[in-house]
Amino acid sequence: MSLFLSSSEVGRRIVAISDIHASLDLLLKLLEKVKLDDRDLLVFDGDYINRGPKSLETVRFLMRLIKERGNTVILKGNIERLGEWYLRRGRIEDIIPHLSDHKKNLLIDWANEAGFDHVGYDNLELMRPILAKQFAAEAEFIRDLPFGLETESFIFVHAGIAPEGDWKESSEQTILKNDGYLASGKNPTDKTVIVGHMPVWNLPESGSSNCPLFYPDRRIIGIDGGTGVKSFSQLNALLIEDGHITWEFADDAPTVRARTDWSPSVQNEFLKFSWPNYFLEIVERGEEFSRCRICGSDRVGMVKNEHITLENGKPCFSANSTPLLLECTTGEELYLLDRCGGYCMVKKASGDMGWIPNDCI
User: Fold this and answer.
1) In this structure, are residues 327 and 335 in contact, taking their beta carbons and an 8 Å threshold?
2) Which residues are registered as beta bridge partners of 334?
3) How crowded is residue 281: how many other Cβ atoms within 10 Å of its Cβ?
4) Which architecture does CATH list for 4-77+145-250?
5) What pLDDT shows up at residue 323?
6) CB within 10 Å: which end of the chain, N or C, has fewer?
7) Which run of H or of E encompasses 154?
8) Can you give the pTM of this predicted structure?
């Protein structure tokens, strides 16, 4: 298969989804929401395995989908490279520590289905040829996925493209694991580049939302809603039709309805968890929210007390927190994300997240 594909967008809708991270149930919910038509061009932008509960099932679903449905493109993400690393390229002494970070992963799914009760130093070398044979089709599928898709107006890649020259000459690492691209990467083309890889929450411009993030001046859109990686995340679908761009998202949080109208009389100072800056200095402790400074910077704002924990004796964020207070209206449907003290953290249909008093729901 070619590393780079092309397709026409004329006369049909494009549906782009990225960073599923083994959350198959959430993907199915999202596909139901977008109401796919056979003519829709469905593009997956990489990272299908690990972090979530169903790596192997997700891979098999995508394998069936690309066989059974036309107009489907499945691109490679950096995490798909782990398949070959698990089976052949990785050193045992590197793989086993890696599993403590990726506690839910494709290797463990393979091992469980093959009848192994654990993966460890004592058995990984023995099981690798068994897994390579039994799961050859799945391993080949994720290994050989193409790197990019180009249409008349858009370029789809997992993480980014080179800052100059023909984008198809970008290195594999640039396309699959370009950590800084969404924040500051360049787009030398006259098309819009659509990427996943970096959760939009990590960028200050995302505010208090995991919805797609637009940089019109650089013609770059980020669509990674942090599924499997961030607390209070969501799975996004970018919808492109006749030059108009909208989106849908799926969230597995329970829904509730507001029992009363509420609007905050004042607003908290904004401060949020933003990778890689986790550690905090507590400036002033409050009853519900405390005023904090992010260590190593001059950024000061409020953090919900229950979202502050200790790591090695130092205060730090315990979740992807936001201090914003939201208004709500009677009967409004909300996603219930957390209950802390006298407030509930909720998400609105717009994707905005924040706090309302407990007695509002």
Assistant:
1) no
2) 256
3) 13
4) 4-Layer Sandwich (3.60)
5) 97
6) N
7) strand 154-157
8) 0.96
